[in-house]
């Protein structure tokens, strides 16, 4: 093995700075584990003269990506620049040049993970991406190694810290969405443009990656049903609490036999569910395996040093493989063909809040509409509203197929006595599955 | 690589049966991951004719250990028989015969782990023991691989399901220790002789193993301070609740600079602590790393299939190494010399419950004894007792050194106004460290 391992960094932002710090501060520990030092040889940046959190010799910085991905001395490329199309080209070139790649890029891995892993394998290179899901939580490695012998049937994740922060503050303190979002932006938990977080797209990318590994199936991003948190109101949160539930943005991946469903949507969890007490910007992934039963992995989902921990732990894995001469041989291709459930195969309980006209027989009309479809209720509340001639009905159904439920919803909207369907959410059952 | 991998099993009890089931039921998945089938060639049992949960061809069973550990065709020995001295000899022989070993034996690994790992390494063999700590939770692999780049400074674990079950039922329903213990025994959560669980020894073994890996230091079992749950009363649990704490049997391993402390003792956790909501027979390990911050790993700590999941996942790791030809090369020896804290270097808050004589000036005598030692209070309650002329004082100190606190305790016991020191527990702080 070489006297040291040379690393090229693409990007020196939040996560990149963390990577530099950990490599510098934990050098003796890294040497102990892998037998040689790690040296950062080159760092791609946009602006050579920007003031940064970490001090690096200016000779290490470059604005020319080829000084990283074409340098024959660089063993490992760490990608923490983000972006998709351009970044994909850079990493394909790096892999074709025989460089191992560590990336924290969930967008890229969700869209092009399969391609990149295949190219890595063809070129005898490692491609690791632990940091792409749930920051500092070593969840991908736990799925691949720790639970290797089990058959995973369900994963539920709080995998977006921004939305969990917002929902926690809204639920606990009755604060308004816009106010908490502004606070999250000020604290750096939310981006200036929060769309990708609050509309659930960021979580969907992570769920695609998790489902691919957990179910050993080529799940694509477009296979994930996505609904964000922007429509959640104070009323919804109050009723959730009253009924013994906690509202979370849940990424869910569920396997029944050979078929799977993957979604991201606001979900009411029973208060006793392990994920219900995961608050603020924290992330957690709940994994149900046929043999192991319920497990949960909890930790920081983002942030400079937590995410960098996952990146550098991947680097350690690459270096251990270099020492053993076995790079590029650990990836396992998906075992199963993708089979997605149809809406008549997806079952869940649902929470529904409706405004109805305060007429004799309104309630009966609504309930008979459900019972015609075979959808029954677990909980039901009817309350008067301040608005004249309106009443509010809140109900939680027993398990129903998504197909039946959507038809009921459509027919409700068409019903003369229904003024408005205010909200509708998935409800997680009490049972483990 | 061979056409199949041959496994010899030592033991066919609870965990052994689970191992057989998983190997049989998940065969296609195992083949996909490691490229060849797994075959169970021989199983050491005590009684050939006992009725068992799994059906194995009687030709596979033997009462002669040499048919497993001396058989040149057996590649991997899975040890799920328990016991220490005899088992150690078997595994040493197996390793010297070039067999890889997977064990679920915490007693053995706590006492002879260092020796066994060295012999494994000398003989080019893998020795994996994920199942020895926290059953189905892949915590050892997470420490070694997932958090490889971080410097772990604190681990706290609920690593004994029996005591967690007992404490949960006592706290939640105000039930008596003996009654809940009997129930736990009936449910199979507690052994007929529960000593090793309730006195904390089982948890101590697991903490020695965790501390060794997390701190990269040769921690021995005798380095772990141990106190069990048998002295905990209903009063203690009621006061804990009233003060905002949850009582748990906590294994704690803490590093300050170069020095460490490891203990197992009943501990009052703030209700908001992630471990406080780990209930019933569940286990969890909370890990604090300098870079990653707070993480927690939650799951079933025991049981046939959960523990067997960890065993067979280790087997998969051995088989992946066989395919790559790199067995016996992944173990990393401890990096640091063992340095244990003295009692004057161990700091904590403490909960103390005392019965004092109801005399003028008693309270002042007690508080001045504390203040002479520089130990101050965070919370203090004084209540009358039914017993004539006695009052109960409950207090929680600010952080104090164990040395100072023990001296205060001793002097309290000698004080004329103190009728009895009823109980004393460690209190976990609100801060992350």
From TrEMBL, chains A, B:
Q: Could you tell me which Pfam families the record lists for this protein?
A: ACT, Homoserine_dh, NAD_binding_3
The residues the record assigns to binding NADPH are 106
Concerning Gene3D superfamilies, the annotation shows: 3.30.70.260, Dihydrodipicolinate Reductase, domain 2 (3.30.360.10), NAD(P)-binding Rossmann-like Domain (3.40.50.720)
Tell me which stretches of the chain form a coiled coil: none
Binding residues annotated for NADP(+), in chain numbering: 10-17
Q: In which pathway does it act?
A: Amino-acid biosynthesis; L-methionine biosynthesis via de novo pathway; L-homoserine from L-aspartate: step 3/3; Amino-acid biosynthesis; L-threonine biosynthesis; L-threonine from L-aspartate: step 3/5
Known cofactor(s): a metal cation
> What general EC class does the enzyme of this chain belong to?
oxidoreductase
Q: Which molecular function terms from Gene Ontology are attached?
A: homoserine dehydrogenase activity; metal ion binding; NADP binding
Ranges of residues in domain ACT: 351-426
Entry EC no(s): 1.1.1.3
Q: What family is reported?
A: Belongs to the homoserine dehydrogenase family.
Q: What is this protein called?
A: Homoserine dehydrogenase
Organism annotation = Thermolongibacillus altinsuensis
């Amino acid at each position: 093995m070489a006297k040291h391992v040379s690393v090229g960094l693409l990007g020196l932002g939040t996560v990149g700075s963390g990577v530099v710090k950990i490599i510098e501060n934990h050098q003796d520990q890294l040497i102990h584990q892998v037998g040689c030092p790690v040296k950062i040889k080159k760092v791609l940046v946009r602006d050579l003269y920007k003031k940064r959190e970490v001090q690096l010799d200016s000779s290490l910085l470059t604005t020319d990506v080829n000084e990283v991905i074409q340098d024959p001395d660089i063993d490992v490329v760490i990608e923490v620049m983000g972006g998709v199309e351009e970044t994909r080209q850079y990493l394909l070139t790096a892999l074709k040049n025989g460089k191992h790649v560590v990336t924290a890029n969930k967008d890229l891995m969700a869209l092009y993970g399969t391609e990149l892993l295949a190219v890595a394998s063809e070129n005898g290179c490692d491609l690791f991406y632990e940091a792409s899901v749930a920051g500092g939580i070593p969840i991908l490695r736990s799925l691949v190694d720790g639970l290797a012998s089990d058959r995973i049937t369900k994963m539920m994740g709080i995998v977006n810290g921004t939305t969990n922060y917002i929902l926690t503050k809204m639920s606990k303190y009755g604060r308004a969405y816009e106010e908490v979002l502004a606070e999250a932006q000020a604290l750096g938990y939310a981006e200036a443009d929060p769309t990708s977080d609050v509309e659930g797209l960021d979580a969907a990318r992570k769920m695609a990656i998790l489902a691919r590994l957990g179910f050993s199936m080529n799940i694509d991003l477009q296979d994930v049903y996505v609904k964000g948190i922007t429509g959640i109101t104070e009323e919804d949160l109050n009723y959730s609490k009253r009924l013994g539930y906690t509202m979370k943005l849940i990424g869910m991946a569920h396997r029944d036999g050979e078929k799977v469903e993957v979604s991201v949507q606001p979900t009411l969890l029973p208060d006793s569910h392990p994920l219900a007490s995961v608050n603020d910007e924290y992330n957690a992934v709940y994994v149900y395996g046929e043999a192991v039963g319920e497990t949960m992995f909890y930790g920081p989902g983002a942030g400079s040093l937590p995410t960098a921990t996952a990146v550098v732990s991947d680097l350690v894995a690459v270096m251990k493989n270099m020492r053993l001469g076995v790079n590029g041989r650990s990836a396992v291709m998906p075992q199963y063909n993708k089979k997605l459930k149809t809406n008549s195969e997806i079952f869940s309980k649902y929470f529904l809040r409706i405004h109805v006209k305060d007429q004799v027989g309104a309630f009966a009309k609504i309930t008979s509409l459900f019972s015609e479809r075979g959808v029954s209720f677990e909980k039901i509340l009817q309350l008067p509203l301040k608005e004249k001639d309106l009443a509010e009905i809140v109900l939680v159904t027993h398990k129903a197929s998504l197909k039946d439920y959507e038809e009921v919803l459509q027919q409700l909207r068409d019903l003369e006595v229904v003024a408005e369907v205010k909200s509708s959410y998935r409800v997680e059952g009490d049972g483990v599955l």
